[in-house]
Amino acid sequence: MNVRRLIPTAATAGAVTLGLLALSACSSSDSAGGTSGGGSNGKLAVTASFYPMQFLAERIGGDHVSVTTLTKPGTEPHDLELSPRETARLGQADVVLYLKGIAPAVDDAIGQSGAGRIVDAASLTTLEEHGTEAGHGHDDHAGEEGHGDEDHAEEESAGGKDPHIWLDPVKYAEVAKGVGAALEKADPDHAATYRTNTGTLVGQLGALDTAFEQGLAATTTKTFITTHAAFGYLAERYGLEQEAIAGVDPEAEPSPARVKELGTIARQDKVSTVFFETLASDRTAKTLAGDAGLRTDVLDPLEGITDKSKGADYLEVMEANLAALRKALGAK
C-alpha cells in the first residue's frame, strides 16, 4: 500500500531545532493536595497500558495523578502478558488508559476488570489501514516476488486497523486532547490544570509536526526500510514510503522473497539505511543490511523507554528519530 501524502515544500534545509521540552516530566510519586481520585496520596489513580499512554497521563495529569503502567521498561507491548493480580488491579484504577490493538492481553484484561472509566486512545482519533509493506505501491517493484504482500496485508488487517497512532504527532495531539477531557471528567476539581497542561502538550506536538514537515520535505529518497510496520502514519503524514521487513509483530520472520524484494527496493530507491529498534531483535535488519551493503541505525517506535533509548521521553526520542530519518534519506 502506498502511503504517500504531498507536503508543502516551503522547508528549511538545515537541521531543525525543537523547543519541545518546556514541560518538565512529572513524577507519579510527587505529593499533591486532595483530589477526588482514589490514588496514593489522594491523587487520581491512572493505569496506562504502555509508554505512549503513560506519557500522556503524566504530562497532562501532572501533580494530580498517580500513574502506573502495565508494560515494564524493556518489555515489548505486543508480547505483554498480565497476571490475574494485575488484571484485578485494573478494576481499582480511577482511569484506565489504553490503545486497543497493541497488546491483546490488555484488551482481554480490560474487558474482565470491571474498571469504571476506560479510555481507548483508538477512539480519540481516526485509525487507518496500512499494509505490512506500507510503501509497497511501486509498480516497478511488482512481480512474482510481490505475491506475498497480499498475505502480509491480510495478516495486519485481520487484527484491525493500524494502531501506531502515537508516531504521528498530529494524531497523537488529537489523542492528548481526548485524554485531557477524560481526566477533567474524572477529577473536575483540577480540570483547569488538566486543560492547561493539555494545551501546552498539544503546542509541543504541533512544533514537532512542523519540525518533521520541514525537516523531511527535501530529501534524496523518500523510502526507508524498518524492522516492523510501525511507521505507516508517520510515512503518510510526511510523504515518505515505509518498507517493513516484518508486519506489525516485530518478531515475525520475513519470507525469503520479501528479503530479496527489499534488496531490489533498496537499489532502485537509493536507500542507504536499514532501521532496527531498541525493544526487538536487530538480527534480520543487520543481515539484510549486510547483504545489501547498507548502513544500520535506530528508528524507535517508542513503545517503551529504556536506558538504550535516544532520549528520556517521547519528545526527545522523536527528535532523535527525525535526525536519523534526515540522515538516512539525505535531507537537504
What is the strand content? 5-15%
Number-wise, the strands total 8
Q: In angstroms, what separates the terminal alpha carbons?
A: 27 Å
SSE pattern, N- to C-terminal: EHEHEHEHHHEHEHEHEH
Rg (C-alpha, Å): 20 Å
Helix content: 25-40%
Instruction: Pick out the low-confidence regions.
Output: 1-37, 132-159
Q: Strand order within the widest sheet?
A: 2-1-3-4
Give the overall shape.
globular
**Structural class category:** alpha/beta
The oligomerization state is single chain
Per DSSP, the total helix count is: 10
Q: Mean of residue pLDDT? A: 81
Largest sheet: 4 strands, parallel
Describe the structure.
- Helix content is 38%, strand content 10%.
- It is of the alpha/beta class.
- The protein has a 4-stranded parallel β-sheet, with helices on both faces. Strands 6-5-7-8 form a 4-stranded parallel β-sheet, sandwiched between helices.
- α1 crosses α5 (169-186) and α2 (84-90) packs across α3.
List keywords for this structure.
10 helices, globular, alpha/beta, four-stranded parallel sheet, single chain, 8 strands, 332 residues
Brief characterization of the structure:
This protein has 332 residues and is an alpha/beta fold.
